[in-house]
Amino acid sequence: MLTFASKRLYNCYRSLASCPLPPSFTGMAKMIVQQNGNPFADLKISSWEPLKGVDGRAECPECKRSRKFFCYTCYRLVGLSDPAVIPRVRLPLKVDILKHPLERVGKSTAVHARVLAPDDVTMYIHPNIPTYTDTSKLLLLFPKKMALTTAEAAQMMRDSSQLPGAGSDQSGASVDPNPWSGLDRLVVIDSTWNGTNAILKDERVKDLPCVKLSEAETHFWRPQRRQDSKHLATIEAIYYFFREMNELINGRSYSGIYDNLLYFYAYQYGVVQQAQKKRLEEL
Q1: Which of 23, 48, 73, 103 is deepest in the core (most CB within 10 A)?
Q2: CA 264, CA 251: separation in Å to the nearest integer?
Q3: What is the pTM of this model?
């Protein structure tokens, strides 16, 4: 799935050797945007009608700054007639997001997780981050060479769920009724990919056990230079972690329980796509 600003479409398309070159830049650009479709169509995401009804920006009641939908510094909903209609997601473990101090908060997708799952997500701005003394039930979501795959992490959690005093499986082994009991915290870095080393080299972070995703691809509308489609936006990485782990731990198809983590992200994707199509129609 490709999403590019129109000024980059020509060069990006030329790199797709299997596709014939259209007769004009305009025709090529329109074809790519039309092929993008909606990658979120099959997800169980709540209605965006409350967002479509918001006209312009509103003042955050806490910091008094102009915001739309939510305040990305106070993490509260803004300008909605009924904030209760915005979905809230419950996660099976706590998530700590370590934000790079130079990451632009207005463009950070990590804030979506903090707003949509406020009971389980905490934001920290580096270097003001926690010291993790017990890492036995903690994973850092980052694709280091020695990182566990999600399948390996799930197996580790299944092994640790066989605890004394729990229920029994068919083999008679004691099994904790909570399949997530082997893990209680996920740490996520929020930064451009080129800026992650500043946090990874921190003494409090560098030795944390890591986990990496499998085959997820980004649908971010602002692709980073020299990064392929495997380099996800922060909210995508969080979502796909819980989706992959849910399937692996429970041993059954994913039910859509975490899809609303992409509530704002998928909506904004659609807005960007519509704006691109409109500009291309005017060419």
Answers
A1: 103
A2: 29
A3: 0.83
